[in-house]
Design brief:
alpha+beta, 4 helices
């Protein structure tokens, strides 16, 4: 758009979680702020202080631990195509555990993982061998 500034963030797709956003919504994941992770979608914005993030998982498949909790379609779990999933677990303002599962494009996953590790001080857990290969 001429004369405007682009909204910061990487385009991802929400595939499940506890956010009150429709699954399969496009979400901008913004890691540019030094203290707060920002999720933006068409109608909502969620801000999570990096200090409240307690789980970072990356894999070609969604962690089975979260799959039941986030009601992901069984078709998605059986898919043969390589998709990159990032699970972010965090405590909300009332200290209730929350989670979101995002599908991230191949070209965006490494910078996002590096930024999240640097900002949170937590290591990303690679859920499968393919994920370990992809982050080396």
């Amino acid at each position: 758009m001429a004369g405007g500034t682009a909204t910061p963030g990487v385009r991802t797709q929400l595939v499940g979680g506890t956010l009150s956003v429709s699954p399969k919504s496009e979400v901008l994941l913004d890691v540019t702020d030094a203290d707060i992770l920002v999720f933006r979608c068409a109608k909502a914005e969620t801000r999570v202080p990096y200090a409240k993030i307690n789980t970072l998982e990356y894999g070609q498949n969604v962690s089975r631990r979260y799959a039941a909790a986030v009601l992901i379609s069984p078709v998605l779990l059986l898919s043969k195509t390589r998709k990159h999933f990032l699970t972010i677990g965090y405590a909300d303002t009332e200290d209730r555990q929350q989670a979101m599962v995002l599908r991230v494009d191949k070209g965006d996953i490494r910078p996002i993982l590096a930024a999240l590790e640097a900002r949170t001080g937590k290591r990303v857990v690679n859920l499968d061998d393919e994920a370990r290969k992809g982050t080396r």
